[in-house]
Every structure is written in C-alpha cells, then in structure tokens.
Write a structure and sequence with these properties.
This protein is 31% helix and 15% strand. With 264 residues, the protein is an alpha/beta fold. The longest helix is centred in the middle third of the chain and has 17 residues, at 164-180.
C-alpha cells in the first residue's frame, strides 16, 4: 500500500485516516489531501477493491504526486475548491493473500456497498462511515477489466436518482479525459448502459451516486494493452497507468465548480 509522504511544511496538508481494521487486522487507510474548509467539495478516489487489479493502485500512484505538487498550477487550483479522500488499496487483505476479487471473508467488496458489515466487509463499512461524515461530491472507483482492452468509464445511468445534471457532468468529465489522453482514453467501447431504474445498488459507483446524489464513476483499465495505442514491448504498464492517473486533474477541474449546481 501507499503511505502518506513526508512533505515540506508549506506543501499540501496530508493526513492518514485509519477509521478501522480489516478482518486480518490491517488498517483501512484513507489519505485526506488538502485542508477542509466550508464550501469545499469532497472528491473521493477508491482503488483496488479487487486486489488483483493492481493497475488501479498504480493509477493512484500517478495521481498523488501530481496532486501534492505545490508547483503544479492545476493541482493548486483544484485544492482550493476541493478536499481529496484517496484510498490507494481498499482491499489490503486480499492483496496480501493473493486473491483476485475478494477479501479475507471471500466477499467481493464491490458488491457490499448496500449493507456493509464489520464481519464480512469492514473495508467498505469503514470507508462509507467516513464518507457519511464528510460527504461526497464526486466518486471515482478505479478498477481493471480482464477482458476489454480499453480504458473507459462506466456511469450510473440506472440509479433512481439519475438526472440531466449527472448526465451532463459525466459527459463533460469523459470528454475532458479523452481530450487530455486521446490515445489512452476512449468512449466507444465499455459496459452496456444500464436501463433506468435497474442499477445494482450493491455496486460502489451506483450506491454512492444514489446515497449522495453525486457524480459517481467506475474507471476501468486493461490488463494487457490499450487497443489503438499498443505497446508491443510493455503493454499497459505500471508507468502508463501512473501517467494516466496524473492526467485526471484536468477532467476533475472541468467539473469541480459545477458538482452541486441545481437541476434546471
């Protein structure tokens, strides 16, 4: 897992929150980046609910250094408007045990968000408890997909609370990410769009969107390579995942000022 870096005294304030322990006794780690203040938005990034999807944690390893770079103007502008809550590895037990998709109890954490429990999914229980305490204005759940050779985002179209406001924010975020990473991000391939009212509210993206009425997305990365931008030697490597993570600041900046606009 990643740990809170040592920072220069004038750098971005970072606090390691540990709201509880996993079933194997490991800390549930949340990095709070930025100084909370009235009016600031709460942006949540959760990675590696499925422990075998290590590209998700590499993506976060690219996001954090740029976000915490006090010389990066985009990062400074974002942190004036938002506080980030980043979970680099939501399933440390599964990672240590060598599991692909489950925690120490055999639970798929990305199906535990409707009713998380301390005896089955303490990771989700503790993360959601902090989320309830501080709020959530944008949620990004970072994963890897074993089959589709693309980077793509799945929205939450099927939730009861889906609205034109959320649809516009999702479209603007994806368009900005594609403009920032035209070789590595695309919008043509991905999961089928869920029918209205048919969303599985056990899944993190859907559950958080419904609970908080916020823009909520699942980011998927390929296991092998990114179709259309293949690297025959290295494929979709940790380095590419990190660069992709660092590039998310621009799409976040595109939407951060409109996350809580009223419906038309």
């Amino acid at each position: 897992s990643l740990h809170a870096p040592r920072l220069h005294p004038t750098a971005v304030p970072v606090e390691l929150l540990v709201p509880g322990l996993t079933l194997d006794g490991r800390p549930v780690e949340i990095l709070r980046c930025g100084a909370p203040a009235p009016g600031k938005r709460a942006i949540w990034v959760v990675a590696r609910q499925h422990p075998g999807e290590s590209m998700a944690e590499h993506w976060v390893a690219g996001l954090l250094p740029r976000l915490l770079d006090r010389h990066d103007p985009q990062a400074r502008a974002l942190l004036q408007k938002a506080v980030f809550y980043v979970v680099p590895n939501a399933n440390p037990d599964g990672s240590v045990r060598g599991h692909l998709r489950v925690n120490a109890a055999g639970a798929n954490l990305n199906r535990e968000w409707a009713e998380p429990s301390l005896d089955r999914s303490p990771e989700v229980y503790h993360i959601r408890a902090v989320m309830d305490a501080v709020g959530c204005d944008l949620f990004l759940d970072v994963h890897g997909d074993e089959e589709l050779p693309y980077n793509f985002i799945a929205g939450t179209h099927g939730i009861p609370a889906w609205s034109p406001r959320l649809a516009a924010l999702l479209s603007d975020f994806k368009n900005a990410y594609e403009a920032r990473c035209p070789a590595d991000f695309q919008q043509k391939a991905g999961y089928p769009q869920c029918l209205p009212g048919r969303a599985n509210l056990k899944i993190a993206g859907n559950a958080v969107a419904q609970r908080f009425g916020c823009l909520s997305m699942t980011l998927e990365q390929p296991f092998k390579d990114c179709a259309g931008a293949e690297d025959a030697e290295r494929g979709w490597s940790p380095e590419r995942a990190r660069r992709f993570g660092a590039a998310v600041l621009e799409p976040l900046a595109e939407v951060v000022g409109r996350l809580r606009e009223r419906e038309e």
